[in-house]
Amino acid sequence: MITRIRNIRLITSGPDGVIDNGFITFNESEIIDLGFEDSINATKVDIEIDGNKSTILPGLMDCHVHLGMDCSPDPFKQIAQDDIAVTAYRTHQQGQQFIEAGITSVRNLGTRYNVDISYRNAIEEGIVKGPRVFAAGQPIVMTGGHGHPMATEADGKAEVKKAARQRLKAGADLLKLMATGGVLTKGTEPGSIQLSEEEIRSASIEAKHVSRTTSAHAIGCEGVKNAVRGGVTTIEHGTILDDEAIELMLEHGTYLVPTLIAASLIANKKDVVPEYMIRKTKTMVEMHKESFRKAYQAGVKIASGSDAGTPFNYPGLLVDELSIMIEEGLTPYEAITASTITAAQCVKKDSQIGSLEKGKLADLILVDGNPLEDIFALKNIQRVYRGGELMFKKPEIHNAPVGEVSG
Q1: pLDDT of residue 268
Q2: Is residue 398 part of a domain?
Q3: Integer angstrom CA distances of residue 203 from 70, 195, 277, 288
Q4: pTM for the whole thing?
Q5: Domain that holds residue 135
Q6: How many other β-carbons are positioned within 10 Å of the β-carbon of residue 6?
Q7: What pLDDT does residue 86 have?
Q8: Cβ proximity of 27 and 362 under 8 Å
């Protein structure tokens, strides 16, 4: 079945940039054609939709999520209590929420029991419908390290290497490593070094051997440097960055996934989240923004992620993350790029997704309004396609005649 949507604005995140009066044609797999309205050819289509001057862009990717975490004030407490079945149910429910928010791909950076890997497999086998999932399985942490309630604990190069091989054997698309302490784990400090440079390198080498990528949770500056020198693909958070850390990221081509929204959702929740979280985030929000601005201005590659699953960080807040990035210096087009083509590049799938180009998979979202003028237009989701399949359509509202009830 071939679908054409015309009379639309296309934000391609690709070589064509923005096409203000255009069309796109796709089948149940890939993009067949796109361009200006007056260049539509005579190809017969099965469905033609008048976009009414709305906007189409590539499906968004959230590069930092935690499927199975319930966004509660203390999600690690919840993780420790949930069994594998409940974790799986939560994961599937959240997958639907991401789709409805226009997020057609998620990069999952930690779920207990490797449920995210099983969920990805179920989607690929057609058992359930959901977003594209790039799954890390359980993170690798030092004994007692950040995130240990959902992680595999390992100490020393040999144990970390074995844990990495176990994740890869389970089918992980990437490895998640904890280079520093974190906010949510009681008894760890965000700036403290955890996995060493040598331990991180041992995992990065294993991933590279099988063409997989790596990510490192890194809040403190020395932990960031260890992770970059250790060969990770992405730094998650990067809350404290000095000039040396930024230079190292530029030298190694390391991506930054800042998750600026995460700490801000916790910092003002006194008497709601545990006190130790409030204490840790008290000075982090502004420091994080400053580090982000410096990295952006220096030319560090930035991919967007929300850290969904952490307290009050519900699936679909990626647009709110993009709005903060815009406040800190990015243009709306750059923010969209961070959530599309750059995001695809950091998972090495930019040949298939991340931009609107002929031959790429038809992961598309149709939104009402112009996100180049107001980024929150990305929340006005009309339709979501994944691989050309309509995954979500905004319900139509039918007003009933006076005295009657619709439905």
Answers
A1: 85
A2: no
A3: 29, 11, 29, 27
A4: 0.95
A5: 60-346
A6: 17
A7: 97
A8: yes
